[in-house]
Amino acid sequence: MNKKPVNGMRDILPAEMKIRDYVLRVIRETYRDFGFTEIETPCVESIENLSSRQGGENEKLIFKIMKRGEKLNLQTAQSEGDLVDSGLRYDLTVPLSRYFANHQADLPKPFKALQIGPVWRAERPQKGRFRQFYQCDIDIFGDGTNLAETELILAMSTVLSRIGFRNFNIRINDRRILKAMAACSGLSEDSYDEIFIALDKLDKIGEEGVAKELLALGMEEEAVSRYLELFRSVDGVEGTRAVDTLAASLGGALDPAVAENMKQIFELVLAASTVPFDLIFDPTLVRGMGYYTGPIFEIAVPEFGSSVGGGGRYDEMVGRFAGQPTPACGFSIGFERIITILMENGFEIPGSKEKTALLLERGLSPEKTAAALKDAQQLRAEGRQVLTASMIKNRKFQKEQLAAEGYLDIREYYENPIER
Amino acid sequence: MNKKPVNGMRDILPAEMKIRDYVLRVIRETYRDFGFTEIETPCVESIENLSSRQGGENEKLIFKIMKRGEKLNLQTAQSEGDLVDSGLRYDLTVPLSRYFANHQADLPKPFKALQIGPVWRAERPQKGRFRQFYQCDIDIFGDGTNLAETELILAMSTVLSRIGFRNFNIRINDRRILKAMAACSGLSEDSYDEIFIALDKLDKIGEEGVAKELLALGMEEEAVSRYLELFRSVDGVEGTRAVDTLAASLGGALDPAVAENMKQIFELVLAASTVPFDLIFDPTLVRGMGYYTGPIFEIAVPEFGSSVGGGGRYDEMVGRFAGQPTPACGFSIGFERIITILMENGFEIPGSKEKTALLLERGLSPEKTAAALKDAQQLRAEGRQVLTASMIKNRKFQKEQLAAEGYLDIREYYENPIER
Fold first, then answer.
1. Does pLDDT of B404 surpass 70?
2. Is A210 exposed, middle or buried (0-12, 13-18, 19+ CB in 10 A)?
3. Which of B154, B388, B401 sits opposite A151 (nearest CB)?
């Protein structure tokens, strides 16, 4: 039997687990304060739902589950599709949309959902990337107004602040602004996906690099130059002023309601936020998933490099399950990334209980053992975390290990204490 | 796209989810008080580990995962085994034993583990039984003394008590007593598995039914009669007195240390327990899994019929992974069963926050919206759970739904409040 976890997945050790549990508690409590209700979907989804082209590249990475019993017929199977009936979910958004469509009649309207759980992607194993990882999503179904975006931003920033992050920022854009900028520059609509993939690399490859990629896609030089000029025109311009500047340049290519909506989100968030963070309008923000239809956002802690969450509005996905379109807007926390940052920075869980360890000599009489167990119960009743354990031969090592785990109060129980 | 969950699995609605979350919190906090540390293993295990005959009948119920990429070759595949490399775990004990073997050097000794998570079994779907369900296990590795059994019983009974159960009992037996009783009666060792399966039905089919099954297995009438007489001899005899009575009848067939061990567990639990429950010596208790080697126990709440947890000592499993045997003892909570009982009995979560809902008229100006959002933040700061939501057309229905969810304080925000 193999004592390693399967390739690309990992066991979680106690020290990390404590931090994960603490962060999950903060996430749950905070989102609950904001009126989100937790739900759960099975980890397994039907293969049709997972292969419906909602998931982009992720659909290539599905762990597929074999049919069972009579339904499995190796002899007559022509292709993989004949052998498989389900798979492990690659995100929480597809199952959540299915869930909402399925239980709509039993759910409050609008519905504010919290979902936390593992997802799986069979990516090439690499440092810091695993094939099973957790996602924490909040989503609001049935609210087409920017109250949804605002609440998501307020809730998410409160979570980060309660975990202990300072100096984070939320960048925001709108898929419709993204498209209007491309349209207004004369870039061809057929290539939007590729154009945005190139634009997404702006901070890595610079303006010249993006220009090069766009030209390689067959875009006209003049259009590319107009396009990049648009971004330059709001470089260093902040927030709603940048939105106004862009809206003026874009003219008829952008519905004025879209610009107005963006400005209102700024206004609402700034008025109601009780934690400090920067809200930044960033016309270069793309977000990979094709299902977004309106505002999109990404949250980052610059001192730790990368994004720790993101989301946006996806008004068309639920309709694919439910028959009728339902506005939807969601935010996903990069849970594993946050845990990594906390682990690397020696995070201390606040408000942990004091810890006492009682070590019992091997062969201690039942009377003395009972006395030790009663002491343990008494200390627990006083609010301490109490471990009882049999002594091992190397008592010094055992005590060092316990001290490393935070057991600063270690008491020993011997049959004949006087002799020691 | 299919809006139903896959066959045999289920979506969890908000009302149940709140209770699950609450119970999990009680479980985690209580076990932590007893010095257990939480760990996590991947949901996916290698197919070799799942098919090693540790899991008994469960091994027939594995959800198997297809190989991917180059490793998957439909043309050359002769059997299922050629197509599959892993599967979803059917319990937490096999992964935990693998985990302990893998990380032994980094873990404290003895190691007290808590593991909570979903497991999967492709059973025929039926009422109350699902193909994905949660298990909550505590296990102690590296302690061969009865301190392990005692602590498991104390911790588990404290959990049940904190959840709110009264009048529960823990039945205890020892696999070695079970075997000694069969041996002493002259039943043949080759048939122990079948004999114990028959014995396990005693409360359903009665003494006569068991006798019939044993005779059908080819046992001698005299042996069967001796065997059943042994059980009768302790009928109505309680606790350690029953152990003494049996030990006297069994004579050399039972190692006196086994009886002594059982009596000590009684003594220790009764001395140290701070919550009321009945500890019952039950020589008819079997526990299905073949891997148990010593004491076994089962916890039940008689007014709700069935068992809500069980466990025992399994000193030989870790050795199959680690190379060297490590004593192990564990207890598994029947989490789904407990949730069902609580749901059916209108369980109220204690200490929930007061809930306020703010309903915002559609088209409310940004100024009034901001004011409402600020009110929400203020109420949250005062410790309330606050939902903000856009009004839907059927406002009366919306308010009824909110009231049903516990939002007893509902406030409405209109652009022109005077007109109403």
1. yes
2. buried
3. B388
- Would you call A271 and B374 a contact, using CB atoms and an 8 Å cutoff? yes
Domain at A355-419: CATH code: 3.40.50
pLDDT exceeds cutoff 60 at B12: yes
Whether A147 sits inside 8 A of B268 (CB atoms) is no
Cα A395 to Cα A398: distance, rounded to the nearest angstrom? 5
Cβ <8 Å between B98 and A3: yes
pLDDT at B118 over 60: yes
Structure tokens at B391: 């009004």
> Among B17, B28, B112, whose Cβ lies nearest the Cβ of A39?
B17
**Weakly modelled stretches of chain A, pLDDT under 50:** none
Chain B residues with CB-CB distance to A44 below 8 A? 6, 9, 63, 88, 120, 132
Note the pLDDT of residue A193: 87
Angle between helices A221-233 and A239-250 (to 10 degrees): 150
Instruction: Return the pLDDT at B231.
Output: 95
Measured in angstroms, the CA of B358 and the nearest CA of chain A are apart by: 10
Q: What is the dihedral of CA A203, A207, A213, A219, to 10 degrees?
A: 130
Q: Is the pTM of this model over 0.95?
A: no
- The 10s digit of each residue's pLDDT in B328-365 is 999 999 999 999 999 999 999 998 899 999 999 998 99
The yes or no reply on domain B14-168+301-344 and CATH 3.30.930.10 is yes
pLDDT(B55) > 70: no
Q: Give which of B263, B316, B387 to mutate to test A binding, by max A Cβ within 10 Å.
A: B387
Buried b (16+ CB within 10 A) or exposed e, B22-32: bbeebbbebbb
ipTM of the complex: 0.90
Which residues make up the CATH 3.30.930.10 domain(s) of chain A? Answer: 1-168+301-350
Q: How many angstroms away from the CA of B389 is the closest CA of chain A?
A: 7
Does an H or E element contain A37, and which? Answer: strand A37-38
Average pLDDT, chain B: 92
